[in-house]
Amino acid sequence: MMMLFAFSTLACLLMAHVASANDEHSAHEHHAHVHGLVQLTIAIENDSLLINLLAPANSFVGFEHKAETKQEIASVKRLQSILNEVSNVITLAPSSCNLSDKTLDIDALLPTRIESKHQAHAEISAEYQLDCQQLAEATSIRIVLFEHFPTIEKIEASWLNNNKQGATNLTRKKNTLFWQ
Ligand SMILES: [Zn+2]
C-alpha cells in the first residue's frame, strides 16, 4: 500500500507540473510554445515509470491545423503510429518495461477538429505508464524520438524520483537523460 501511495503522490506532482504547463496564464512564465521544442517529464518510483510529452504540434508534423491534404493526413497517421509505441520514444537499459497505460492527445490535428478563429497554435501530448524490472539499476534513458522526427530541435527534459529531481536540455547529439 505504501508503494502505491508513494507512486500516486508522484503522479500528482507530475500532473501538477504538466497542468501548469498547459495553463494559458502561466504559459509565458513556465512554458513557451516554441516550434521545434518538446517538453518531456519523467517520474520514477520503485519499478514504475511515468513519461509525459507535451509539444507544439509543429514540432512533430510541421503544422498546427487539422489535417486536410493527403500529405497532412499521412503525417498525422505516421505521428499516431510512432507515438503508439513507447519504444519509439525512449529506450531504457538494462531495465525491461511493460506498458500499463497510455494516453495520446493529437485531437488538434485530426480531421474532426472544430477550428476556432482564436486558436492559431495547437499542442499535442502523450503519456505512458510503464511497469519495469530492475528499474533501480537504470540510471539513464535514451530519447529516440529525435530519430523519428527531424523537426524536433530540442527536448526540455525534467525528471523526478523519490530522492531527487533535475532538468536538462537534450538534442540530437546529446540524446540521453541521466538521473544519477
Ligand atoms: Zn505553434
Automatic annotation (TrEMBL):
Domain of life: Bacteria
Pfam families (alphabetical): ZrgA (PF10986)
Record flagged with keyword Signal: yes
Signal peptide (residue range): 1-21
Keywords of the record: Signal
Protein name, UniProt field: DUF2796 domain-containing protein
Species of origin: Colwellia psychrerythraea (Vibrio psychroerythus)
